[in-house]
Write a structure and sequence with these properties.
The strands form two sheets. Strands 1, 2, 3, 4, 5, 6 and 8 form a seven-stranded mixed β-sheet that branches. By secondary structure, the chain is an alpha+beta fold. The chain is built from nine helices and eleven strands.
């Protein structure tokens, strides 16, 4: 396939997130329930003469760092290294997912780039190998590459159990005007935990993952306590969001975005009006 390809890069949310042991290499094991959102970036990939990958941003300019560090660029380059006849690729990215906010925007872009560049190469790389590349790029990339609307992930996110999707639900995403460094959030969590601390047992019965009410009862995020303690603006935004009466309200990833799930679109829209823009940017979406 040689024509341009346009793919959505859908955001993710963590409905629960448990941070487990820290390995000798410094990485932590995770246990998380990932949900796909309708909110999405748009990636256009097309072949061009020569070699290498170029990235263009459509719409308002954003600070995404050097192109060589961008996950979508790295994903495209990973595919090109594996095909017999490399070619040039131009990526055009339209961003709607807030940057560095715990919604997996970079991971979603990377997953879309893996899929698109492989299609441009005639699907030269088997899907299982694409997942191997995804795991090397980041913890959320395998889920973003999968077609699963809901999945349990553990380890570093490279092990996934795809689950049937939940009924689509209206969502508000509130991104406070303060960013959270993922590395710093892990550091805060490690400092807050006793070396002798033990985690309690959790039974993840499939029936407990089939409805929003059941998931709301088990929802939680280990990063919340340490992030809220150090960044009061995020705690205040969380409290404001919780006061709108959602079925579920949590921080996603290491923050700073907060997600609230509502029983109806009317409740969601009333909550958006109630929040205004005092605590940060508010985006209405739905689960995919």
């Amino acid at each position: 396939m040689s024509g341009p390809l346009t793919l959505p890069a859908r955001a993710k949310a963590n409905l629960f997130l448990r941070v487990l042991a820290k390995a000798d290499d410094g990485y932590h094991s995770l246990e998380t329930l990932l949900c796909r959102l309708e909110l999405a970036d748009t990636l256009i990939a097309e072949r061009r003469e020569g070699k290498g990958v170029t990235l263009e941003l459509a719409g308002e300019p954003l600070e995404l760092g050097p192109p060589e560090e961008n996950l979508a660029v790295r994903a495209a380059e990973a595919v090109l290294r594996m095909v017999r006849t490399p070619f040039g690729v131009r990526l055009t990215l339209s961003k709607r997912i807030p940057v560095a906010a715990g919604l997996g925007g970079g991971s979603a872009d990377a997953a879309a780039a893996l899929q698109a560049v492989n299609q441009l190469a005639g699907n030269a790389i088997p899907r299982a190998e694409l997942f191997h590349l995804a795991a090397q790029l980041g913890a959320d990339v395998p889920f973003c590459l999968s077609a699963a609307p809901l999945a349990l992930a553990w380890g570093r996110g490279e092990r996934l159990l795809a689950l049937p999707g939940l009924p689509s639900a209206p969502v508000l995403l509130l991104t406070p005007r303060v960013s959270v460094s993922t590395a710093q959030a892990y550091g805060w969590l490690d400092a807050a935990r006793s070396s002798a601390a033990r985690r309690g047992a959790v039974v993840l019965d499939p029936s407990a993952l089939s409805g929003w009410s059941d998931i709301a009862r088990m929802a939680g995020n280990d990063f919340e306590s340490v992030v809220f303690a150090r960044l009061p603006a995020i705690r205040e935004a969380f409290e404001a969001l919780a006061r709108t009466g959602p079925l579920l309200c949590r921080m996603t990833g290491s923050g700073s975005t907060l997600i609230a799930v509502y029983r109806s679109e009317r409740e969601r829209d009333d909550a958006k009006l109630q929040l205004g823009s005092r605590h940060g940017a508010v985006i209405a979406s739905c689960t995919a």
